[in-house]
Specification:
Radius of gyration: 22 Å
Structural class: mainly alpha
Number of strands: 0
Helix content: over 70%
Length: 156
Amino acid sequence: MGKKGYLFVVFLLILVFFASGQMQKATPYEKYYLWYTNEIAIPIDQALKKTNDSNTIKDYRQARKTFLHAFEEASEYHLPDQKLDKTHEQLLGYLEWRIKYVDGFIEYLQTKSRDTKAVVNNYNDEGNIHYSIFISNFNGYAKESNHTFITPVYLY
């Protein structure tokens, strides 16, 4: 076989690998994980990092917009598997408490009130509880689906 024959065989092998990868459909777990990572975790992580670095009202207002957008996105998302329902409810709960937290922190930055700071800390704790349950449920769903769940390093 000449040079053209080898190139043809390599081309066919690449074509076969590409075609076999295209035929494999994503599982409901993979769909939800990719959606969550790209539409929720990454934008929120970027907004939180910005607020942690600056503590300005402007940055918290931008973070609020990010959380509101994530909440709207999550509210409209059609679950690829109904077994994700309770997991998704926890994600929505997390986002609701984060919006309250950001609103409260904006008020705290404006007033510097200790009472407001205590309420804000409570909002933060509630959000963390929902996030922990979300991660736990998502991990359980991954195991049921024969996947290894890796927490995206994006959310705190």
